[in-house]
Amino acid sequence: MIGKTRRMSRLFVGDKKRCLLSPLDHAGWLGPVRGLDQPKVIVSQVIAGGANAILASPGFLQATAELIPPSVALVLRVSLTAGLSKQGTQETPIACLDTALQFDADAVAVSVFFGREGDIEIYRWLANLIQACRPVGMPVIAEMMPPADQSFDATAIAHAARIGLEVGADVIKTNYCGDPEKFQNVVASVPVPVIVAGGPKQANELKLGDFVRDLMKGGAAGVAIGRRVWQSEDPCQATREIHQALFE
């Protein structure tokens, strides 16, 4: 389908067809924390650093649209965590396919956190969304997260990613197990592009560039690193480091 092909070509760019997706969608969960407290500032910084795609909610994108050039892909988050709710451990649908078409989005994104209450309900909604998106060529990015006690276990990551494949997602976003060879097995079992979430900053972690290079050895098609970018002292430079490792 021409529409889906064109949208995917804006998400995955360059000779190696890779994606530097900047996720700026955490404020519903965490609130307007430092780094996300000024939407226009952080959007300008990550674009200047080389992000080729932005992931955000409808309201966030509407507030910053004037700063996002046509060359930067838009990924609309259509499910969001309500951080102030007692039920805010799982995402809730906040938008639909029509919203994405109105925004001229290049993809929609939904997260499923397995092991948390409500995971089957949001998974069912994801499946219905995929069916709705298919006829109009709208790619669906499924963030498939294993249970918290297995967050970085290669077998659990592969299982979560495979569930996303089985339901028909076009792109899988998930965790990195920390071992390129094991991650190659994850990628091999999921024959659609796999992009890796950054997650919270960890003690003794690899530098950003080295982290991304490790992922590339594991066969990842891109990254979606949020907190390690917008929590940094210089989000533009942090994004630039990711860009260099990913594309150069």
Care to describe what's here?
The protein has helices spanning about 1-10, 25-30, 40-50, 60-65, 95-100, 120-135, 155-165, 180-190, 210-215, 225-230, 235-245; strands at about 20-25, 55, 75, 80, 90-95, 105-115, 140-145, 170-175, 195, 220-225. By secondary structure, the protein is α/β, with parallel strands linked by helices. The chain has a single domain, classed as Alpha-Beta Barrel (TIM Barrel). An 8-stranded parallel beta barrel has the order 1-2-3-6-7-8-9-10, surrounded by 7 helices. The longest helix is centred in the middle third of the chain and has 15 residues, at about 120-135. The chain is globular, with a radius of gyration of 16 Å. The protein starts with a helix and ends with a helix.
Task: Kindly summarize this structure in a few lines.
This protein is an alpha/beta fold and 248 residues long.
Fold blueprint:
Elements lengths: L1 H10 L7 E5 L3 H4 L8 H11 L3 E4 L1 H7 L8 E5 L1 E2 L11 E2 L3 H6 L4 E7 L5 H15 L6 E6 L8 H14 L3 E4 L5 H9 L5 E4 L10 H10 L4 E3 L2 H4 L4 H13 L1
Parallel strand pairs: 1-2, 1-10, 2-3, 3-6, 6-7, 7-8, 8-9, 9-10
Antiparallel strand pairs: 4-5
Helix pairs in contact: 3-11, 7-8, 8-9, 9-11
Main attributes of the structure:
248 residues; alpha/beta; TIM Barrel; eight-stranded parallel β-barrel; two-stranded antiparallel ribbon; 11 helices; 42% helix; globular
